[in-house]
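Example 3.2
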Amino acid sequence: MNRLLIVSNRLPISISRQDGDLSLQRSVGGLATGVGSFYKSCESLWVGWPGINVQKKQKEEKDRIIEMLRQEQCHPVFLTPYDIKHYYDGFCNNTLWPLLHYFNHYTNYDQKTWNVYQRVNEKFYDVVMEVARPGDVIWVHDYHLMLLPQIRPALCAPQGRRVIVPVCRQRGSTGEAAER
């Protein structure tokens, strides 16, 4: 099997600062639990946010986080508190989540959060393009990154990569994967 790149909003591991040092914690629930043991059993790399804010000037800490995650078959996408507020808490949770879960009356659309959602998807795209190799199968998970496969055609076939995006179906149906 070719290498699997799992791309999701969060990594299956969170990093935090404890007593002045960096600490790893396994994420529980959701995708991390469901796929956590599988991705370690094959050649794979998980791309996502490690749950910690690292300032640009903290290059040494950033490099250390990248190395810690590499040992766990993970690669970070660093997001700012502004990104989290407007991308995750804003557009993902206030617009997409209610819309995709049949709570249309709770959907809140804001141009600023949409702009940040687009920019963060581009940030994920840039990181994926840094780590992806020809022949990789790229699994983009969930609505947090719906724009990712469409941002640039380069993510797909010309480099021999396949992108798999889980798609939503009508209420009561089971989900299926769509290949692009």
